[in-house]
Specification:
Length: 143
């Protein structure tokens, strides 16, 4: 049986792009739209995928950004995504995902190794917590 091999894109971005990504994650639509029109389209799509948009998640996977999708899934506690990140040597994204899922050890690791990615993970954590709060709010559940 033939295995379906997914090509992987690098995670190297200039700091100003990472700062823009953090702002887009926080809900800044203007910056998110700018990312979508730039050569960093995947970071704009990531924002939709983080907010549970299925077509955006599929786009990330199908276009060589499985590592970004695995990061999102890792924030959701999906162990297989975290294992995949480790197996493929995406240790920075592994710690971003775990930090965004409230793991103190990964927050400490990021603080020592990449403060900007720590800030991004904290923004992701905030957004995922907001989504979870909305999902369990009894005033938002339809009878």
């Amino acid at each position: 049986m033939k295995k379906n091999k997914v090509s992987l894109k690098p995670i190297l971005y200039p700091n100003k792009i990472l700062i823009a990504w953090k702002e887009a994650i926080s809900g800044n639509k203007e910056i998110r739209n700018w990312l979508m029109k730039s050569k960093y389209k995947e970071l704009g799509i990531f924002c939709f995928a983080l907010n549970n948009d299925k077509s955006s998640r599929k786009w990330l996977f199908n276009n060589g950004y499985a590592h970004l999708l695995a990061t999102i899934e890792g924030t959701e506690g999906k162990e297989d995504a975290l294992v995949w990140l480790q197996k493929n040597n995406y240790m920075l994204l592994f710690h971003v995902a775990r930090s965004a899922d409230s793991y103190v050890e990964s927050k400490k690791w990021l603080k020592q190794n990449d403060k900007l990615m720590l800030a991004i993970s904290l923004q992701m954590e905030y957004i995922k917590d907001e989504i979870e709060d909305k999902n369990i709010d009894p005033h938002r559940i339809n009878p």
